[in-house]
TrEMBL record:
Alphabetized InterPro entries for the sequence: GlcNAc_PI_deacetylase-related (IPR003737), Glyco_trans_2-like (IPR001173), LmbE-like_dom_sf (IPR024078), Nucleotide-diphossugar_trans (IPR029044)
Domain of life per record: Bacteria
Gene Ontology MF terms in the entry: hexosyltransferase activity
Entries under PANTHER family matching the protein: GLYCOSYLTRANSFERASE (PTHR22916), UDP-GLCNAC:BETAGAL BETA-1,3-N-ACETYLGLUCOSAMINYLTRANSFERASE-LIKE PROTEIN 1 (PTHR22916:SF3)
Pfam families: Glycos_transf_2, PIG-L
Record domain Glycosyltransferase 2-like: where: 257-382
Name listed for the protein in its UniProt record: Glycosyltransferase
Keyword RNA-binding set for record: no
SUPFAM superfamilies, alphabetized: LmbE-like (SSF102588), Nucleotide-diphospho-sugar transferases (SSF53448)
Organism, as annotated: Halioglobus maricola
UniProtKB keywords: Transferase
Amino acid sequence: MPSSSNSMHESDLVPFNTTSPPAGPWLIFAPHYDDESFGMGGSILQAVSQGHDVDIVFMTNGAGGGTGSENEVTAIREKEAVSACEYMGVKGYRFLRQDDRQLELSSQLVESIAGIIRELRPASVFFPSPLEYHPDHRATAEIVWASVQTLQGNSPRLFSYDIGNQGPCNVLLDISAFRERKRQLMSRYVSQVTKHRYIELVEALNISRTFTLPEQCDAAESFFEFKYHPGLTIQHAMESWMARFFEESEPHNRLVSVIVRTKNRREMLNHSIASLAQQSHQKMELIIVNDGGEDVEDLVSEYTQVFHSVKYISWPSGRGRSAAANAGMDMVTGDFFLFLDDDDWFDAGHVRNLLTALESSNSLVAYSGVKTIATDPASDSDGRVFSEPFDRLKLYSNNYIPIHAALIDASVLDTGCRFDENLDVYEDWDFWLQLCQISPDFIHVDIVSAYYRVGGAHGFGLRGGREDLRRMIYARWCKTWRLDDITELLTRLEKH
């Protein structure tokens, strides 16, 4: 299939202009005493000068950054931090005194951080980039992110800042007017700057961040603003943004429509949509079909800024899985589409892997491996994997491809391909047999990247057992099969 034209430019990857400081109040999390000043001291000075309230939380005791006893080093560094806060005009600061280089995600620490956020109610929260080298820097990012996930209602805007590593950036603040004051600020940390060239190194980073900025900008500090949504991990939030760097070599500009059928499973639906928000392929259309369940439009609306477009249809009473699938297909505007029921989910690379496979072939269908997750841990169905090479004859006799395993070229919709709304079981199998008439070969991507729950009302293949319907499907499709295929199928049956 032809590739779409490339449209990714430098300005899509890094800012070419600075912006005003984000709205206050600000809450800044610093792993150690000095990280706030080295990473974003110029921005703090600017924010305070504009009247923003700023609070800083120092996560560790910083005892690894000096000689002497732990208490002695901590006391020296806390005194320096107080001096730095006073110089910046920051009146709110607190010390958590976690062990230096031992910072880890824990429920107790998450609860503590969440309590601070609820107490201060910041408009903007800052933490180190999750791509920083120091383990405490990365841990701070993970802890703050997990804490925000426990909050009810609207979350603050979330920004990471660079300290020792020039990470991804979508916000640049011009600190030219505060360059000298930042130097004076950093010099307050005497115990650190006298044993290493931190001031020179930080200033070099600030200068390098002006690479794409107008000539009059002498120094800048960089930030990454996250698109936060409940259930989205910080790893996947970062991965999905970084995927744009590969759009020149991969078909990332193709629009993929995702049809999600749902009914009275709000919590699971949120988890399913979150797995879509985490996809490394970002250009997606979300289509939610509510088949007579409780209204979830408020939940769906939370994702309007994440996807290329969001469509929602809700019926007052249930019409069935097949009708919901057809309604979703009627709303598809993407180049490709796939299904995801509200109790299932994808790994971050699911859509990209399938899209890449289809773009490099003449097939209209590509599918991945799917793993079962049993609602009852003792079930022997837990951990079963469906990931077999494509075998058209096997598909003639039995369905072995879960519906959400596959990405489908939207051109099949022009042929009138539909779900049979008279079927309450085997409708997925019947749909695959239709597609076999249009695309005789499906592409198998031998990676497990999709999951579905089994047990109770969940699970692929658990609604079967209707021999009358199996015979009806055979009668419908066997007349389209080639004689050679029927002969081979009978030969296989004889061997078994």
